[in-house]
Design goal:
This protein has 581 residues and is an alpha+beta fold. It has helices spanning 2-40, 49-95, 114-126, 138-158, 160-165, 241-255, 281-290, 356-369, 378-387, 395-399, 402-413, 417-420, 459-470, 494-506, 561-580; strands spanning 167-171, 175-180, 190-195, 208-210, 216-219, 227-228, 231-233, 265-270, 297-307, 317-324, 326-335, 339-340, 426-433, 440-441, 444-453, 475-483, 511-517, 533-542, 558-560. Helix 3 packs across helix 6, helix 3 (114-126) packs across helix 15 (561-580) and helix 6 crosses helix 15 (561-580).
């Protein structure tokens, strides 16, 4: 309607502009002709009249042309502006329609006891199932494996129906795969997944409750699992033992009823996600592949329900990851002449450095000063379009008209570190190693650069970009590890629809949208055994403050007892919706 009205506007005004333009041209020509006739009567200037008349006619016609051409240009610009404004208003009004109303909640057929769930999570936290990197000692590895076995014995004791009525497969000793066989073998199965390992705690003496001045007034042991003021504290409370316990609670509860799933349901517990999942999730995926299983969808940990996640968005946002970034780890090495520090290499003004540390420092400085430019892909569009109805003005005008404001949106998202990671490949300088002694010039230097690769970039593009930015043949670049961005899973899939409905039921205040996972999860091992992979945690957090996303791999990790009960309701709802689709 806006475009039609604009066309009518342009046509009507063109008629008004052309009429006076034609009149001016006729008058100019007539005046020039009359001038020639008058001048022709003067014999002494018989050689002038024709030229003078022509020049006057041309001059007046040119003035008229310029004047009315300006009017036409202004009218054309005005017409285009009217078209653009009408399209913007139409799109904004179309987006202003309220999003899907909260679905009626599926009532759980079993009783949920928040206190009992909290007690079980508290016990689970006490098992120090720590995954360390390659620097771990044999004693640390043995202790972690022992703790994991004790944890598996614990969940077997408190969830007897799960371990007696479902098919249980111990995978590579420390991981587990559960299978609940459905009644309809023609329907593709789906799978929940969570990991029981946690990252080390490096600042245990900093954990605890602080007063308004930041003073520690109540120390908390990160592996005690204390319940304080309605929160379960400890490493793994939100990453990811809460999911292990909540899913087991859901399965145990449903097994106590007459419910029988139509689809076969799998649940996997990995034991080394924090160090890549090569011995846990990768082996579980191999088991599924050996059984020729193709999952309808795979549900893993991911983003959460976050308040204040996006600027100018008034509601909490539940971001469901439909893809995740790739990963590239690069090693930079430099070989140079070593020696005594009293005779350093001659470094003249405005000349490249010659020491190993100087060369590698220059390369790292360039990489950090020249990040890879922001990109844009379909998932960002879908996220903003899904959130558009819940945005407040004027942001709603912008997100409803991405055809015009996409560069502006990209710029806005690139302003903060949290959102910038969603629109570009990030560059992080993580390891630097060179000298050993203060008076010795090191003969070599080494650094590691970590990239999280956006789906709009390929691994090879990032490597070439880095080499170009470094611009120094003395710096050797070696690939330590690489993983392309995950396949894209459609928000129209069964898994996303089930997750979306469950979120609206359990977290009705939240707006649901697809998004990009900026980190890597164990879902990468299941690409070949599932049609889609979705990543989401039914955990409520704030963007900033004490109960924020900074708890991940940080200090004071905790989850509310009420949230644990909601997590059980969420997994129950996803299971029932997916089974009915």
């Amino acid at each position: 309607p806006g475009f039609t009205a604009s066309c009518v506007f342009v046509f009507q005004h063109a008629r008004l502009w052309l009429r006076p333009a034609g009149w001016w041209l006729c008058c100019s020509t007539r005046y020039g002709y009359d001038l020639m006739c008058r001048d022709h009567e003067h014999k002494e200037r018989a050689n002038v009249p024709i030229l003078k008349g022509v020049l006057v006619t041309i001059g007046l016609s040119l003035i008229g042309y310029l004047m009315f051409h300006s009017v036409l240009v202004f009218g054309a610009v005005l017409s285009v502006a009217v078209v653009i404004v009408s399209v913007i208003i139409t799109n904004t009004l179309r987006c202003a329609a309220p999003s899907a109303p909260p679905a009626s909640r599926i009532q759980t057929e079993f009783k949920i006891s928040p206190e009992k769930i909290a007690s079980r999570l508290s016990t689970a936290i006490r098992f120090q199932t720590i995954s360390r990197d390659n620097n771990r000692t044999e004693a640390e590895l043995a202790e972690s494996n022992s703790q994991m076995l004790q944890f598996l014995e614990f969940i077997e004791s408190v969830y007897p129906s799960v371990h007696s009525r479902l098919k249980v497969t111990r995978v590579n000793t420390h991981s587990v795969l559960y299978e609940w066989v459905g009644s309809d073998p023609s329907l593709a199965p789906f799978m929940f997944y969570a990991h029981a390992d946690v990252v080390p705690v490096l600042d245990a003496n900093e954990w605890g409750i602080r007063d308004s001045r930041g003073n520690l007034v109540r120390p908390v042991d990160p592996f005690e699992g204390e319940v304080i003021d309605g929160f379960v504290w400890g490493r793994g409370a939100i990453d990811d033992k809460q999911a292990v316990i909540a899913i087991l609670e859901t399965l145990e509860g449903l097994l106590s009823t007459s419910f029988t799933p139509r689809r076969t349901i799998f649940f996997g517990i990995g034991h080394d996600e924090e160090i890549g999942g090569q011995n846990g999730a990768a082996y579980i995926a191999k088991v599924l592949e050996s059984r020729k299983i193709m999952l309808e969808f795979f549900h893993d940990e991911g983003m959460m329900v976050i308040s204040g996640a996006l600027k100018m968005h008034p509601r909490p946002v539940a971001l469901v990851s439909c893809t995740e970034k790739g990963h590239l780890s690069l090693e930079l090495t430099v070989e140079a002449t070593g020696g005594h520090s009293s005779m350093p290499p001659n470094c003249r003004n405005n000349q490249p450095p010659e020491s190993a540390i100087g060369i590698i420092s220059r390369a790292l400085t360039r990489l950090e000063a020249h990040p890879i430019p922001p990109g844009y892909n379909n998932i960002t569009d879908q996220m903003l379009q899904a959130l558009a109805p819940t945005y407040s003005l004027p942001m709603r005008i912008i997100v409803c008209n991405l055809w015009l404001f996409r560069p502006l949106i990209t710029w806005i998202l690139s302003l903060s570190p949290e959102t910038s990671a969603s629109v570009r490949t990030t560059t992080a300088l993580t390891v630097v190693k060179a000298g050993e002694k203060s008076n010795v010039l090191p003969p070599s230097a080494r650094a590691i650069v970590d990239h999280r690769v956006h789906p709009c970039n390929s691994i090879d593009e990032v490597i070439e970009f880095d080499k170009k930015i470094i611009g120094d043949s003395r710096v050797n670049v070696k690939v330590l590890g690489r993983l392309e961005a995950a396949p894209y899973s459609s928000p129209d899939g069964i898994g996303f629809r089930a997750i979306s409905r469950a979120v609206r039921e359990c977290f009705p205040e939240a707006a649901v949208a697809p998004t990009l996972m900026v980190g890597n999860t164990d879902s990468k091992h299941f690409w070949n055994v599932s049609r889609a992979q979705y990543r989401f945690c039914p955990t409520t957090l704030n963007k900033t403050g004490d109960h924020s996303v900074k708890m991940f791999h940080g200090r004071n990790e905790k989850i509310s007892v009420a949230n644990l009960a909601l997590a059980v309701e969420y997994y129950h709802s996803v299971l029932r919706h997916a089974d009915a689709m």
